[in-house]
Specification:
mainly beta, 4 domains, 4-stranded antiparallel β-sheet, 1 helix, 61 strands
Amino acid sequence: MAVGVAGALALSLAVLTAPGPAQAAPAAAPDVDTPVATTQLNRVQPSGIAYFWAGTSGLEYSAGDGRSHWLDYPGVTPPEHAGPDDLATGADVVVSGRPDGGVTLEHRSTGVTASVTYSEGQSFYDAIGWNVLVSDKTSGGVHILRPTADGGTKDIPLTGIPAGARIDAYPTSGSVTHVGIVYTLDGTTSAGLVDLADGSVHTYMTNVAPVGPRMVFNDRWLVVGREAIRVDAAPGTEPAPVQYPAKSLAVVGDQLMAGDPDFVSGPDDDKLTAVSLTTGAQRTVLKDSDGTFGPTLDGGMLATAGTSPTDWHVYRVLPTADGDVSAPEVVFTVPPQRAIVDGLMLAGGELLMYGNATNTANAYAAFAVPLDKDGRPTGEQARRGPYLDWTSCLSGDAACPQLRPLGNGRYAVLYTDSDGKQSLEVVGHSTNVDAIDTVATGDLGGRLPSGSGRYVLYNGGSAGVQKVADFAGPGGMDGTITLDRPRTAAAVWGQRLWTPGSTKGSVVAYDLKAKRNVATVNTGAPCTPSEIQAVDTWLYWTCGATGPAGVYDRAAGRAISVPSGPAALADGYLVREDRTTHVLSLTDFHTGTAATRTLAVLPAQDQNTGGDTGRWTADRFGGNVAYLTDGGKVALVTAGVPTTPLAQMEAQTDAATATTGDPWRPIWQLSKPSTWTLNLFDGRGTIVRTLTGASTAAAVEPSWNGAWDNASRVPGTYTWELTAKPRDGQGPDLSVTGTTTVK
C-alpha cells in the first residue's frame, strides 16, 4: 500500500507539472540609468514624536505615522532582572499584555514576565514599573497590585489620604518608586507622592493651583508649579520657590528641566534649560528644542530637538552622580516626513520641487535644493517663493501646475483669479522670498511654453493670443508686456524670441530689447515648424505631433534628425516620455547624430501630467534630469552630455548712483552655473574693488555700493570686468566688460 500511494502521488505531481502550450516570454525590462541620488520634498514641520514608554534600555514611540515603534538605546548595557521586590528594576518593565482581570508585566531586557490579577470589583488605572494601580469600582479607592515570587498578587491599599478628600489625579513622572497624588479637601488642593513600596501617601504642598497643577518629580525632588521640595524632607518642611523659564518638564538628578514645546514665544522657550534645585543656577542643555519632551522611568528624560526637519533628533539626558545632568546623547535621528510633489523644475543646477509641504491647506510653494554638476544634492531644501493658492490651476487642467524655471533662481507660474482671468507671476527672489512680480495677461486658459531670465512667453487660451512679458531688474517690481503678437510656434532664449520665418524650415530671431529681427536660420525642416524650442545654440523643431522632428546646431551649421513626438530640449539632448509605456528616454545629439537611451520607466499611474515640469524635468541651463519615482521621491540622473561653452544670454548693466541705499545691481544671465569675479577699475586702470561669488542658478547678480576696497568712495566713471568660470569645468571662462558710474 505504501508503494501504491507513493506511486499515485508521483503520478499526480507529473500530471500537474506537465508542460502546456508555449507561452510568450514577458517583455524584458529596458536597461535604465542608475540615479546618482534620490531626494524628497520634506515637510517644513519636523515629525511629531510621541513617547509611549521610555525605560532603561529603550523606548516605544510614534513618529507622526500613527504606528508604534520600539528602539533600543545605542551602546546601553541592558539591566539585569532583579524581580518585583526590587522596585528600581521596574524602570525597564513594560505592560506586555492585558488579559481579562489581569496585567502581564515584562522586564524588557531579559524577557522575564510576571502577572497580577484583580477582582471584578476593580478596574485597571495605570502601570508603573512592577506596580499596577487599580481603582475600586464602588469606593473609587486606589490599590497597588504587585506580583509575588510564588506567582500571586500582593494587594496594597493606599494609606494617609485624608477622609473626605476628592482625588484629582495620580500623575506619573521620572520615577518607578513613587507616583504623584493631587487631592482636594474642603476646597483646598494639596499635592504629594505615593510611596509605591507600601502605599503610604505623603503630602508636601497645600494651597496649590486647583486646576491642573503642573507636577514633575523623581526620587529626590518634587516640583509643583513654582515650588520645589526634596522627597526626603522632614514633615512640616516648607517648599522653596524655584524660578525657571517657560514650563517645568522633568526633574533629572537635582536639576529641573524647563522649556516650552507647545508655544515658542521667545528664545527661552526655544531651548531646554537645566535649573539647579539646590543653587538656582541655570544653563542651556539643548538649543532649538521646541519638540517633544518626556521624563523617563529611570530618572532621565527624552527631548526632541533640532534646527530643521532634516536635523531633528531624539536626545537622552541622564542624571550624573553629583546631581547634575549628562550631556545630551542622540538616541536616533528622526527622518523627515515626505510631502507630495506636484511639480518639478530643474534650472542652473537647482532642483525645485513644487507642492504643499505644510499642514495648511492650499499652501503650495517651490522648494529649492542645490545640486552638484552631476545632479547630487549639496545642501538643504529652502523655500523659493511665496505660498500660493492652488487656484493657479484650472479645473480639469491636465498640464497643471503651469511652471517655468527661468535660470536665475526664479520661476514663472500662472494664477487664475475669481473671474477666470490669468496673471503671469514671477517668484523666487533671492532677497525677498515672499515677493511676487506680476503682470495681467487679459486672457484665460493659457500656457507657459518658454522663458529664461527676464522674459516669459505666454500662449493664451483664446485663439491667436501670444505675449512676451518682461520682468527686468533684480525683482520686486511688476512686469510689463513687451510684445503682443499673433500666436505661432515660438521660444525665448535670453533676449531673443525665435519664431517661424516666411519660408519652410526657416526660423527668425527677434531681439526683444532692440525690437527688431536679428537673424534668420534655415533649419532644414520640411514644414513651417509647429513647435520651436531654443537652448544655447540648439534649435528644436517639429512638424506636428507625429511628423518629423529635428535639431539645428547653429554653432556647427548642421541639421540633426531626432525621434518625433513631444520632447523637452536641453543642452545637447532631448528628454521625452512615451505616454503608452511610460519609458523616459534621453536622446543625445551633441555629436551630430542622435543616440537614445532609457533613463527610467515611470510609474504607470500619473500623479500629474504636467509635461516637462510635472513628473519629470530637464535642466536647460547646463544640467541634468529628474523624475518622480513610484514611491513619490525624486530621482536625479546625470545627463552625461557635454555642455556648450559658457555664454552671456542677456545683461542688465545700466549705470546707477552706486550708493549704499541705491547700489549698482547688474545682472548677467548666463547659460549655465558659474563662479565669478567682478573687478572695478578707476580711470587710471587700477582695480579699486573686487567682488566674487557664485551664480544664482545661471545668473550673476552682484551688488556694488560704489565703495573701494579701502572704503574710499570717489564719484566718476568706472570700468568693470566680469570673469565667470563654468562650474562644470567644461569650456573656457567668459569675460565681458563695460562701464558704470558712481555719483
